[in-house]
Write a structure and sequence with these properties.
- The chain is 35% helix and 29% strand.
- It is of the alpha+beta class and 491 residues long.
- β1 and β2 form a beta hairpin.
- α2 packs across α6.
- The radius of gyration is 26 Å and the shape is globular.
- The mean pLDDT is 93.
- The structure holds one RNA strand of 77 nucleotides.
RNA sequence: CGGGGUGUAGCGUAGCCUGGUAUCGCGCCACAUUUGGGAUGUGGAGGUCGUAGGUUCGAAUCCUGCCACCCCGACCA
């Protein structure tokens, strides 16, 4: 495998792109800005989906599916929503092609123009709230707790595999509630689920917070988010949960009758995470050897590599390999025996390191004789010789350790990269030289936030939840401030 | 969309300035020897040189348009 090697420390985005391709996660398609998620990458996404889906269902949500197309007029019903998305919508104007008799080419049939254009969904609030109108009459119909797994399209100017693609996969939850309190509780509950998933499953520490007005979702009263910190010191928004107030209920005239027989608008939330999480996963743990996957998401958790020279050895070794395979599989571990005989063990080691398989077990004739196995962990590259008899209790434990270790490593990195600053010089110095989050006072105005963005390219990632209150002065204007917020340069 | 760069076999590339039908490595196929950290030998297959035009006896090479990707901006829940 003669792949181009790009060092993480020298060219982070080159390294990232290279890794996505070399580890067989995804590739560019023939369509501008759109990617093909390859089987190995999709397997990781499926594991993410399964974990999230289980958590959604445990908290009472059901899956449903709404159309890909949204009538154009729906978008204009909620003013800030259309402002937020208008510039990046794909529009369907015709429904038929025909053969041009003059050129012999396939052309759009001008006679097949749609009365009303259809928008390819960039998000589904409008079509869903238009539907909820018919579903909700009484307080007895509430809450409605629905999630959909879908693809959406946002016509971004510049794309990057997984992080920002024109079409991407995601889930979007859309809930309807009788009271604001209940909707807010839902918004926060989903934020907690995202944070828990990111930390426990992805092993990516996140900061929970609320967005400033500038960064808020188009149509929301409050946007909560989880923010991760990537290895190059840039922040990545990994998930959002919005309290939509009654904006969409009013726009789509969704009312319910209370127990007291009064008519009220419904309260709404929406929340989502996307295939961008794949980007977060890659950029949180991986190194120059390739991907590093947390055991909880690795499609292959343990790979067994048999080593043999002669035919007689092959049988002996394979017999053990198969036995270990069966033993681990019985424990619910995802395990694979790589018995390809046209490549050397060294080649396979490198390949599974590239693919981020957490644990590698090698068995050769020597091991068979000694009753041992050679175990290598991907995260530390540490190798050890274990008694084969210990396999069944040591390997599950090792997988847990690896999961813990890569989380801790990412957490340590983040802790080292949150810099509290009090002056503008310190602010710029932290961004340029230390990288990561900058915790500083801000006077709370959108104008100041804009100005800071202009001067430093940093945006407010969030105002952390349970943020300690302290008096201070805005790092730019010197105006009084009650709390610090987190700034960073972000993806 | 602006500035810069790139596009040659599955991958990575040489050739381009100075036009004459494409180089090398990896991978692939066959056989043999191999296999405890990216094996070796021998033989073989694989190319509309991103794309569409133009100049020319002749274009990967020169000219023009277009497309895609990368980097920096602008843009971006």
């Amino acid at each position: 495998m003669d792949v181009k090697k790009i060092k993480r420390s020298e060219d982070y985005s080159g390294w990232y792109n290279n890794l996505v391709k070399n580890a067989d996660l995804a590739e560019h398609s023939d369509v501008k800005g759109c990617m093909i998620i390859k089987p190995y990458g999709y397997a990781i996404w499926e594991k993410m989906q399964a974990e999230l889906d289980r958590r959604f269902k445990e908290t009472g949500h059901q899956n449903a599916y709404f159309p890909l197309f949204i009538p154009k007029s729906f978008f204009s019903k909620e003013a800030s929503h259309v402002d937020g998305f208008a510039k990046e919508c794909a529009v369907v104007t015709h429904y038929r092609l025909k053969n041009d008799p003059e050129t012999g080419q396939i052309v759009v049939d001008p006679d097949a123009k749609l009365e009303e254009e259809l928008i390819v969904r960039p998000t589904s609030e409008t079509i869903i709230w238009s539907t909820y109108r018919n579903w909700i009459q009484s307080y007895r119909d509430l809450p409605i707790l629905i999630n959909q797994w879908a693809n959406v399209v946002r016509w971004e100017m510049r794309t990057r595999l997984f992080l920002r693609t024109t079409e991407f996969l995601w889930q979007e939850g859309h809930t309807a509630h009788a009271t604001a309190e209940e909707a807010i509780a839902e918004t926060k509950q989903m934020l907690e689920i995202y944070a828990d998933f990111a930390e426990k499953i992805m092993a990516v520490p996140v900061i929970k917070g609320v967005k400033s007005a500038n960064e808020r979702f188009a149509g929301a009263l409050d946007t909560f988010c989880i923010e991760g910190l990537m290895q190059d010191g840039k922040a990545l928004q990994m998930g959002t949960s919005h309290f939509l107030g009654q904006n969409f209920a009013k726009a789509f005239d969704v009312k319910y009758v209370t127990r007291e027989n009064k008519s009220e608008y419904v309260w709404a939330t929406s929340w989502g995470v996307s295939t961008r999480l794949m980007g977060a996963l890659i950029m949180s743990h991986s190194d120059d050897e390739g991907l590093v996957l947390p055991p909880n998401l690795a499609p292959i958790q343990v790979v067994i590599i048999p080593i043999f020279r002669k035919e007689g050895e092959r049988e002996l070794v394979m017999e053990k390999a198969d036995a270990y395979f069966a033993a681990l599989k019985k424990l619910g571990i995802s395990v694979k025996v790589d018995d390809r005989d046209n490549m050397t063990p060294g080649f396979k080691y490198a390949e599974y390191e590239l693919k981020g398989v957490p644990v590698r077990i090698a068995i050769g004739p020597r091991d068979v004789q000694n009753g041992t196995i050679e175990v290598a962990r991907r995260d530390t590259k540490e190798k050890m010789v274990l008694q084969a008899a210990d396999l069944e209790h040591k390997i599950p434990h090792l997988l847990e350790q690896i999961q813990q270790n890569i989380y801790q490593k990412a957490l340590d990195y983040r802790t080292e990269h949150i810099h509290a600053v009090n002056t503008w010089d310190e602010f710029i110095d932290a961004l340029d030289n230390k990288t990561g989050f900058v915790s500083s006072h801000w006077d709370g105005s959108s104008e100041t936030e804009e100005k800071i963005k202009e001067l430093s390219k940093a945006t407010i990632r969030c105002i952390p939840l349970n943020n300690p209150q302290e008096d201070g002065k805005c790092v730019l204007t010197g105006n009084p401030s009650k709390e610090r917020v987190l700034f960073a340069r972000a993806y």
